[in-house]
Amino acid sequence: MNVRAKISSKGQLVLPKAVRDAHGLGPGSEVEVESVGDTIVLTPRAKPTRKKYTLEEVAGFLKYDGPPVSIEDMNRAIEKEARRMWNAQRR
Questions:
Q1: Would you put residue 78 in left (φ > 0), alpha (ψ -120 to 50) or beta?
Q2: Tell me: the pLDDT tens digits for 7-58?
Q3: Which residues is 7 bridged to in the sheet?
Q4: Where are the beta strands (DSSP E) in the chain?
Q5: What is the largest CA-CA distance in the chain?
Q6: Cα(31)–Cα(41) distance, integer angstroms
Q7: Which of 10, 12, 35, 30 is nearest to 20 (CA)?
Q8: Which of 7, 19, 66, 87 is the most exposed place for a label (fewest CB within 10 A)?
Q9: Exposure of 23 by Cβ count < 10 A (0-12 exposed, 13-18 middle, 19+ buried)?
Q10: How far is 1 from 19, CA to CA, in rounded Å?
């Protein structure tokens, strides 16, 4: 695919849509820029993959060593914090 692009007065280069689409590039995508003789090579950087966690692993992140808390106590604490946030926002 041969396409033409212009460099702006700020030194910015807009990759044509066809090129972006062909390589899956979107906002925030990064490319490596390499100068090889009289050629400039742009290489898309692979997006870092996020580790996927199992339900058991996620549950392991949530360790709680205190006394058991009832659902009613949790609901009261949530309501208390929601009221505090509401009142703070209205000031």
A1: alpha
A2: 999 999 999 999 999 988 988 889 999 999 999 999 998 876 777 888 888 8
A3: 13
A4: 31-36, 39-44
A5: 71
A6: 10
A7: 30
A8: 66
A9: middle
A10: 8
HSE toward the beta carbon, residue 57, CA cutoff 13 A: 4
Q: What pTM was computed for the model? A: 0.47
CA–CA dist 74, 71 (Å, integer) = 5
Q: Which two tokens stand for residue 15?
A: 């990759």
* Tokens representing residue 84 in the block: 């505090």
Q: CA-to-CA distance for 68 and 79, rounded, in angstroms?
A: 19
Q: State the pLDDT confidence band at 86, using cuts at 50, 70 and 90.
A: very high
What gap in Å lies between CA 46 and CA 31, rounded to an integer?
Answer: 9
Between β-strands 31-36 and 39-44, what pairing exists: parallel, antiparallel or unpaired?
Answer: antiparallel
Query: Are the beta carbons of 32 and 23 closer than 8 angstroms?
Result: no
